[in-house]
């Protein structure tokens, strides 16, 4: 082309640019997000209770937004030097670059870039692709309008928070963590902040954040850890940025000469930037999200609102206590108790620890995989559907609530009860000739056939506790369990394929008793490990029940969005009654620790299907004055617990208790709890049998039809009350197709083993 032709083409390009700007300017002003309108996805981080140790990260992009004033000068100056040396003086547009694109478009030459920071931000904001002339035109118009409306500091802030740096990092703060394990926040200690030399390495990444997927070896980008060529690219770009910093007077000559390319870039390990949701604590995060979705601050928000909202969620989970829980309850680890290590693949444990008086969940182990089954409880997912496997028949461990209700009704632990091997209970439909048959003791005790209530508790005798439940009224026992912390119990509706969750919160036992029968007193109906742990925490807090929760606070951009609400309600037990309860439960042999602490607890076992000898569920629950925990050990499919050696002798005392004991000792030590510091005004657990100030309202009653019936309306319904357990997912829609443990119904001639 002749010189005259080139001049004409250039003039035409300028006119085209001016015309396009005039014609398209108004078109784009409303359809393209401005910095104020653009809502950048920002990673949400879930922390342990210390507020500084991350537990998990969520969000479509790894991004943490910083304000312009919070960014240190090194990142601001080096970015301008690398990407747009005229940033502070230009009008948001690189006219030379636009004309070059126009010229090449007209002459058939290669398309080229060279955009200002404002143009680059406009491209990111509008998600403009490619390097065509039309894209450059639209980008230029947007940048011009942004520059007219917003301060340069605002534009640079949004650019630094939005631009990708590679390694999955979006924005300067995420990049600082990904490449150097540091921060770009000027308010942090100097040693934790990016240096000038490190910032210059980071801004070099913007030119090509990731390797070219079509030629990763030939064009690896600027991450110095991706190979020799990438390191060379990084050093060359770093030198260019240094010269630009000198030119812009961000560095003096002496400072520039002293700068050295840093060797502090950390190795790229994709696992280091995993969300953490795949770990055991990922199960706890499900409860965190479920809890927040029920609050005013988050109710009704879009499903990804929390994940992409840039929140700092401080949980109640104590890192050291959680570590102790995982070490004890993950029976695939070598850290688990010897009795439970290396057992068959269908064995599964769950453990929950609760702080008495506050309801804070200190540790939650519902399974080894965050995306897998939750065997410790249930939660609502983002669609509002219940998820989780975590309900199991508690067996004799439920008798703590019978005992508490007995004490509330002034029935002493010294009262005596008939304790033969079997006994008929006509009022509850448990007689010879009925499908359920008489109630049987699954264990024996020296006191039989006439045992004090405390002796029957320690020996896990079913006959006296079934008798006690009739005497107290099953609805009253249910009330006590609900007051103490059992929010849900699973019943077996007639004709239903799987148990249904019955919500006990705010409802009296009489309101929901039609779903249950007297068998609830011996632990037939499923409850969650989480609820059982809270019940123990209530007794530890001298009968003051707090609501379990997983979130302490939520912060967004230094603003408190949500904070926990603490409070406790009295369940109606006086100090003398608590003393009797504590004394009785500390007689249980499994509730003894080797660290000198006062401990109270109870074991429990429930059989597999219709078996009278094989167990599928074992429990150990208990508390000190400062810590409460519940452990369930069972099978993932409801089948019998059979050891690797082929033994069928699996009980709460033999296999669940070692997990509980190991955890309680380790967690107590990790938290540095003092056994001599009493909380809630609770005295030391009594060493001797409490005084008999509390006496039974009447002696233990013989099994006669004259006793008031606690059976559901219409008489006993053995076909509903005693079905064979069916493996099923609980509550619904399990996260894995793997079947859940037994749903909690008892078979004919049901009995809870001694534990």
How does the SSE layout of this entry go?
Layout lengths: L2 H27 L14 E4 L6 E5 L14 H11 L11 H13 L9 H10 L6 H17 L2 H11 L1 E3 L2 E2 L1 H9 L15 H9 L23 H20 L5 H6 L22 H13 L18 E4 L3 H11 L17 E8 L6 E5 L13 E2 L5 E2 L3 E2 L6 H10 L7 E3 L3 E2 L15 E2 L9 E3 H7 L2 H11 L1 H11 L3 E4 L8 E4 L5 H4 L14 E2 H12 L3 E2 L5 E6 L2 E5 L5 E2 L4 H11 L14 E8 L7 E9 L4 E8 L16 H19 L47 H4 L34
Parallel strand pairs: 1-5
Antiparallel strand pairs: 1-2, 3-4, 5-19, 6-7, 6-24, 8-9, 10-17, 11-14, 12-13, 15-16, 18-21, 19-20, 22-23, 23-24
Helix pairs in contact: 1-3, 1-5, 2-8, 2-9, 3-5, 4-5, 4-6, 8-9, 12-20, 13-15, 13-16, 13-19, 15-16
Description:
33% of the residues lie in helices and 13% in strands. The protein is of the alpha+beta class and 755 residues long. It folds into two domains: 3-31 and 62-272, Biosynthetic peptidoglycan transglycosylase-like (Penicillin binding protein transpeptidase fold, Orthogonal Bundle), CATH 1.10.3810; 321-721, DD-peptidase/beta-lactamase superfamily (Beta-lactamase), CATH 3.40.710. A five-stranded mixed sheet has the order 2-1-5-19-20, with helices on one face. A hairpin with a 2-residue loop joins strand 19 (551-556) and strand 20 (559-563). Helix 2 crosses helix 9 (228-247) and helix 4 (117-126) packs across helix 5 (133-149). The longest helix is centred in the N-terminal third of the chain and has 27 residues, at 3-29. It is elongated. 52% of the residues are buried.
């Amino acid at each position: 082309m002749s010189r005259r032709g080139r001049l004409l083409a250039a003039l035409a390009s300028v006119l085209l640019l001016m015309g396009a700007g005039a014609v398209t300017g108004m078109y784009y002003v409303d359809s393209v997000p401005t910095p104020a309108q653009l809502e950048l996805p920002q990673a949400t981080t879930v922390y342990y209770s210390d507020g500084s140790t991350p537990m998990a990260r969520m969000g479509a992009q790894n991004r943490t937004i910083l304000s312009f004033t919070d960014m240190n000068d090194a990142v601001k100056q080096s970015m301008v030097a690398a990407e747009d040396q005229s940033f502070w003086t230009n009008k948001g547009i690189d006219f030379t670059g636009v004309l070059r694109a126009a010229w090449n478009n007209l002459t058939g030459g290669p398309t080229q870039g060279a955009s200002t920071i404002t143009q680059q931000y406009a491209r990111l904001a509008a998600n403009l692709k490619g390097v065509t002339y039309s894209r450059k035109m639209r980008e230029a118009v947007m940048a011009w309008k942004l520059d007219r409306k917003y301060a340069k500091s605002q534009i640079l802030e949004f650019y630094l928070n939005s631009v990708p740096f590679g390694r999955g990092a979006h924005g300067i703060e995420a990049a600082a963590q990904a490449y150097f394990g540091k921060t770009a926040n000027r308010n942090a200690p100097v040693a934790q902040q990016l240096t000038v030399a490190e910032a210059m390495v980071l801004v070099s990444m913007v030119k090509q954040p990731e390797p070219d997927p079509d030629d990763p070896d030939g064009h690896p980008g600027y991450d110095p850890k991706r190979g020799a060529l990438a390191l060379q690219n990084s050093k060359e770009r770093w030198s260019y940025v240094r010269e630009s910093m000198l030119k812009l007077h961000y560095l003096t000559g002496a400072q520039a000469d002293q700068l050295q390319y840093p060797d502090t870039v950390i190795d790229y390990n994709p696992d280091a930037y995993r969300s953490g949701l795949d770990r055991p604590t990922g199960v706890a995060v499900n409860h965190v999200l479920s809890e927040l979705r029920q609050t005013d601050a988050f109710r009704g928000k879009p499903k990804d609102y929390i994940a992409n909202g840039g929140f700092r969620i401080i949980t109640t989970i104590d890192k050291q206590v959680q570590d102790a829980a995982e070490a004890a309850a993950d029976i695939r680890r070598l850290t688990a108790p010897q009795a439970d290590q290396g057992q068959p693949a269908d064995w599964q444990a769950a453990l929950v620890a609760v702080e008495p008086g506050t309801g804070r969940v200190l540790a939650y182990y519902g399974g080894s995989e965050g995306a897998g089954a939750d065997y410790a409880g249930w939660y609502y997912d983002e669609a509002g559907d219940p998820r989780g496997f975590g309900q199991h028949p508690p067996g004799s461990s439920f008798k703590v609530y019978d005992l508490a209700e007995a004490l509330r009704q002034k029935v002493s632990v010294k009262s005596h009860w008939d304790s033969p091997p079997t006994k008929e209970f006509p009022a509850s439909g448990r007689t010879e000739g009925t499908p359920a048959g008489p109630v049987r003791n699954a264990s024996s005790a020296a006191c039989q056939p006439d045992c004090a209530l405390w002796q029957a508790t320690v020996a896990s005798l079913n006959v006296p506790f079934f008798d006690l439940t009739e005497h107290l009224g099953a609805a009253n026992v249910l009330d006590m369990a609900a007051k103490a912390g059992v929010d849900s119990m699973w019943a077996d509706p007639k004709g239903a394929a799987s148990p249904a969750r019955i919500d006990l919160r705010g409802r009296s036992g009489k309101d929901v008793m039609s779903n249950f029968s007297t068998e609830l007193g011996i632990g037939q109906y499923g409850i969650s490990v989480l609820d059982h742990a809270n019940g123990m925490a209530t007794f530890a807090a001298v009968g003051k029940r707090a609501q379990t929760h997983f979130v302490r606070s939520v912060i967004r951009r230094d603003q408190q969005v949500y904070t926990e609400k603490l409070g406790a309600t009295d369940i109606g037990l006086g100090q003398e009654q608590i003393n009797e309860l504590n004394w009785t439960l500390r007689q249980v042999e499994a509730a003894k620790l080797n660290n000198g602490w006062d401990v109270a607890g109870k074991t429990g076992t429930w059989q597999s299907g219709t078996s009278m000898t094989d167990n599928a569920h074992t429990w150990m629950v208990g508390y000190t004055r400062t810590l409460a925990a519940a452990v369930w050990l069972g099978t993932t499919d409801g089948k019998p617990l059979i050891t690797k050696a082929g033994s069928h002798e699996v009980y709460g005392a033999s296999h669940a208790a070692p997990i509980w004991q190991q955890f309680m000792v380790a967690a107590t030590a990790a938290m540095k709890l003092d056994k001599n510091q009493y909380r809630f005004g609770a005295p030391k657990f009594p060493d001797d049998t409490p005084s008999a100030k509390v006496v039974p309202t009447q002696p233990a009653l013989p099994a006669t039809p004259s006793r008031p019936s606690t059976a559901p309306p219409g008489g006993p319904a053995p076909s509903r009350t005693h079905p064979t357990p069916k493996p099923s997912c609980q509550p619904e829609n399990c996260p894995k197709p793997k079947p859940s443990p037994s749903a909690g119904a008892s078979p004919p001639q049901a009995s809870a083993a001694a534990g």
